[in-house]
Amino acid sequence: MDSAKKYLAECIGTMVLVLFGCGSAAIAGHVLGTLGIAMAFGLSIVAMAYVIGNISGCHINPAVSLGMLIDKRISPKDFVGYVVFQVIGAVIGIAILAFIINSADLGGFAATGLGQNGFGEASAVGLSMIGAFAVEIILTFVFVLAILGVTGNEKMSVVAGIVIGLVLVFVHIMGIPLTGTSVNPARSLAPALLMGGLALQQVWVFIIAPLIGGALAALVYRFFKSEKRTDKA
Length: 233
Hints:
Elements: H1 2-56, H2 62-70, H3 76-103, H4 109-112, H5 129-151, H6 160-179, H7 185-195, H8 197-232
Helix pairs in contact: 1-3, 1-6, 1-7, 2-3, 2-5, 2-8, 3-7, 5-6, 5-8, 7-8
């Protein structure tokens, strides 16, 4: 039953992140600009962290869950469950967003987009595929490393949600003009599935690169922890 609660929490949290983050980009991106969209993603994390943080840890991102698995904070079974329900939540969030857009006088979600990620012609600055791959690894590395650090210190637990949300804003500010900012395979897969075409062709970058970034962050964090134990000894 505890596992079911955790998986449901991850599903709801990811749904909220995708609905409000991608929704802000698709519906009001031209008004909000980069900073406004970045804040929407970050505030979604803050809100969910204080709702489901004590239930599931509020990963709502397969790259974060992978980092937690490598740092031995969750089991392989929970990792699989988390990722499955994160993807389900992301798809539900995007489906709701598509319904809202199609119910408004916006020309349909094919015209507005769904906050999908992209490179080349799908990038605001024409970033290459290799550049996009590198950017997503770096941004996810920074994001997941910050999460591991702040959640690994009990003294920071009260402000952890705010710190994580602000770091997500931070990486989005740089990443939005480049790739639209993924740092989250579930967040990228869901809009690509509905948009199809170029978004679906390119989504592999936004699945693989964030997972690499999350894994690298966990390995570096474990190295830092081992060095700290050595110093104390």
